[in-house]
């Protein structure tokens, strides 16, 4: 490619970047695709990667993945700049398509290529952010918190303008593990960081994420302004996937206000966006919400079908905790049906028990994977305890005295410390030691929010004693393992270990 052609290609790339900055993602895609057709060499590869990124933002995840693979096939295996960039960005499309294993593999390849790099700090941060996103999808909360903290530290050193992303990931992690006031604080700090950096697209995404948290906390009035501001931006920019998320949140808000007709209409519009963009995990989550509306309006068969579709989507991708949470939610719906009947049938109660007990055991087991006592306590009180209470309630209503006794025994058995994870017997996770930022970053846009976010992260990640999953309880007088059939059912249904191999005789 001659110098004039190369210069024209670089000008096209700059024009595409300008269009994206203005919020015209569709025009940016057109420009990058034109550049890919008319250039060669690294300029062409860069144009294909940029076009793939635009296609992903516009919700055409399958097209995006095809373009990334085209670019990767055409570049050297050790291309020091283009290859890790393409791998990191391709992982986003793979995540949207629910291909989490492939996304993880791409990111690990990128991380290895970036290990010795001294001048690609921004891309290293992006790689860590994407690894955090995969951990969040998988609900591996301890890994997500560790990666989010690592990416926050990397952002402080290499890319302060990206600081809002790890802050938002920390918000998501703490929200889902029960520390919800702290999560809202992180979300607000992320929003402040993006506003200071002038990143309009990230501001809208963070407004949407923050609104989602506020809606889930029943703080509907607070959620209205950021939700509608972000929705207006995404619809005007033609970002269908993000518009679908906004519609889902609006529907959830309508559902919370008991406007079920409006909620259903919004959920259906949202589902159409997700199906069109092949965002299978978002579509599965959306079907859970539609199932809830169907149940509340007496459409029980539709409810069951929607939940089954969602369960299958999670199972196919190895997302066992999602499946357990879906079963718990299904059981809460059945609780309403049980309460509505003077004499609920034995079949209905048996169905409720079969859903609630394995789900409660799997959800409760998550706390043993969390890195410190505070997080374990929050998970127990906010998330696991409600699930276990429902299991107790259904066991009682079903008149299953043996199940009740087993649940009591296992809940009273306590937690086993694991003090062998390091040579000196201390926990493997230590308190964070966040580095002070270089002096030249003190005046950088977003620096104040970044400093406060780092302080919050340090407080949130206090070390604790590591624990092992609880042992199986052998009831000596009866010669059996407590809850054995339910433990087996949970581990088979969710593909997760929820009890240690050790057996404790009582």
Offer a few descriptive terms.
single chain; 506 residues; mainly alpha; Serine Threonine Protein Phosphatase 5, Tetratricopeptide repeat; 3-stranded mixed sheet; 5 strands; 72% helix; globular; TPR_rpt; Tetratricopeptide repeat protein
Indicate the mean pLDDT: 86
The parts where pLDDT drops under 50 for at least 5 residues are: 415-464
Q: Looking across the biggest beta sheet, what order are the strands in? A: 4-3-5
- Sheet with most strands: 3 strands, mixed
CATH fold topology of the domain at 1-119: Serine Threonine Protein Phosphatase 5, Tetratricopeptide repeat
Q: What structural class results from the helix and strand content?
A: mainly alpha
Computed over alpha carbons, the radius of gyration is 25 Å
Number of strands: 5
The CATH class of the domain at 1-119 is identified as Mainly Alpha
CATH architecture of the domain at 1-119: Alpha Horseshoe
Protein model, in words:
- With 506 residues, the protein is an all-alpha fold.
- Among the domains are: 1-119, Tetratricopeptide repeat domain (Serine Threonine Protein Phosphatase 5, Tetratricopeptide repeat, Alpha Horseshoe); 199-315, Alpha Horseshoe (Serine Threonine Protein Phosphatase 5, Tetratricopeptide repeat), CATH 1.25.40.
- The protein contains 22 helices and five strands.
- It has helices at residues 3-21, 25-38, 41-57, 61-74, 82-96, 100-114, 121-138, 141-158, 164-176, 180-197, 200-216, 220-237, 240-256, 260-276, 280-296, 300-316, 320-339, 346-365, 373-397, 401-412, 447-460, 484-494, and strands at residues 416-417, 467-468, 472-475, 480-481, 503-505.
- Helix 11 packs antiparallel against helix 12 (220-237) and helix 12 (220-237) packs antiparallel against helix 13 (240-256).
- The chain is globular.
- Residues 415-464 have low confidence and may be disordered.
- This is Tetratricopeptide repeat protein.
């Amino acid at each position: 490619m001659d110098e004039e052609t190369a210069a024209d290609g670089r000008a096209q790339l700059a024009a595409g970047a300008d269009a994206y900055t203005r919020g015209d993602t569709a025009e940016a895609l057109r420009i990058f695709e034109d550049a890919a057709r008319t250039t060669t060499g690294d300029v062409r590869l860069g144009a294909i990667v940029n076009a793939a990124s635009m296609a992903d933002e516009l919700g055409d995840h399958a097209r995006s993945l095809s373009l990334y693979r085209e670019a990767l096939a055409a570049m050297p295996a050790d291309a020091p700049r283009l290859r890790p960039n393409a791998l990191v960005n391709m992982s986003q499309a793979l995540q949207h398509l629910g291909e989490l294993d492939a996304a993880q593999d791409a990111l690990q390849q990128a991380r290895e290529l970036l290990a010795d790099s001294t001048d690609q700090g921004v891309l290293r941060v992006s790689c860590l952010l994407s690894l955090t996103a995969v951990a969040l999808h998988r609900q591996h909360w301890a890994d997500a918190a560790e990666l989010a903290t690592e990416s926050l530290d990397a952002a402080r050193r290499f890319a302060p303008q990206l600081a809002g992303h790890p802050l938002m990931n920390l918000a998501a992690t703490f929200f889902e593990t029960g520390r919800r006031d702290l999560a809202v604080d992180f979300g607000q700090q992320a929003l402040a960081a993006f506003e200071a950096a002038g990143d309009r697209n990230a501001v809208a995404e963070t407004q949407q994420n923050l609104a989602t948290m506020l809606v889930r906390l029943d703080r509907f009035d607070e959620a209205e302004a950021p939700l509608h501001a972000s929705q207006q931006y995404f619809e005007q920019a033609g970002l269908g996937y993000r518009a679908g998320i906004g519609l889902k949140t609006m529907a959830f808000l309508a559902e919370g206000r008991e406007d079920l007709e409006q909620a259903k209409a919004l959920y259906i519009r949202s589902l159409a966006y997700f199906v069109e963009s092949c965002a299978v995990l978002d579509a599965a989550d959306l079907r859970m919400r539609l199932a809830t509306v169907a149940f509340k309006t007496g459409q029980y068969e539709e409810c069951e079908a929607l939940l089954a579709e969602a369960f299958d989507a999670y199972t196919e991708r190895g997302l066992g905790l999602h499946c357990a949470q879906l079963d718990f939610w299904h059981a809460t719906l059945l609780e309403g049906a049980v309460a509505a009947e003077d004499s609920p049938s034995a079949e209905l109660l048996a169905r409720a028990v079969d859903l609630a007990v394995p789900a409660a055991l799997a959800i409760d087991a998550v706390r043993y994977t969390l890195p410190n006592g505070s997080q374990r306590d929050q998970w127990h009180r906010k998330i696991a305890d409600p699930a276990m209470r429902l299991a107790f309630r259904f066991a009682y209503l079903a008149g299953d005295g043996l199940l009740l006794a087993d649940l009591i025994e296992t809940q009273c058995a306590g937690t086993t410390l694991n003090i062998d994870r390091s040579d000196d017997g201390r926990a493997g996770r230590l308190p964070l030691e966040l580095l002070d930022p270089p002096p030249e970053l003190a005046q950088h846009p977003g620096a104040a929010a970044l400093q406060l976010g780092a302080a919050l992260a340090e407080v949130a990640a206090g070390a604790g004693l590591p624990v092992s999953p609880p042992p199986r309880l052998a009831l000596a007088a009866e010669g059996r393992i407590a809850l054995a059939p339910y433990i087996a059912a949970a581990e088979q249904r969710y593909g997760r270990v929820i009890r240690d191999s050790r057996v404790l005789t009582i």
